[in-house]
Design goal:
47% of the residues lie in helices and 15% in strands. By secondary structure, the protein is of the alpha+beta class. Strands 1-2 form a two-stranded antiparallel sheet. A two-stranded parallel ribbon has the order 3-4.
Length: 110
């Protein structure tokens, strides 16, 4: 909240080891700020969607964060903090792995 300049938040316990937090902010913290935050807290991972303020933005931001988190899982990444805008293109290209593989084969050949 401090990094994002948020005055309030909505937090949901989504599972035994998962918290979802939404904050009405205009800009996300930088990747450097996120890296600094998670450096001091072992075993934490943070995925941020694109900042937005209205109800549609709330939903989109949540889906963005879930896509970023899923991408890091698919890639088995060691990265502990991610901004959706940093992985948006890769997320789009790898969302359907079979289709992405076919695209690569069609484009580059065997």
């Amino acid at each position: 909240m401090r990094s994002a300049g948020a005055a309030r938040r909505l937090t949901v316990l989504a599972g035994t080891a998962t918290l979802w937090t939404w904050m009405p902010i205009g800009a996300a913290p930088s990747r450097a700020e996120l890296d600094e935050i998670v450096a001091d807290i072992p075993n934490i991972r943070v995925a941020l969607g694109r900042p937005a303020r209205d109800l549609n933005g709330f939903r989109r931001s949540h889906l963005d964060a879930m896509a970023a988190q899923s991408l890091l899982g698919r890639l088995r990444s060691e990265r502990r903090a991610v901004l959706f805008q940093d992985v948006h293109l890769v997320s789009l290209l790898t969302n359907d792995v079979a289709e992405a593989r076919q695209f690569v084969t069609d484009t580059l050949g065997e």
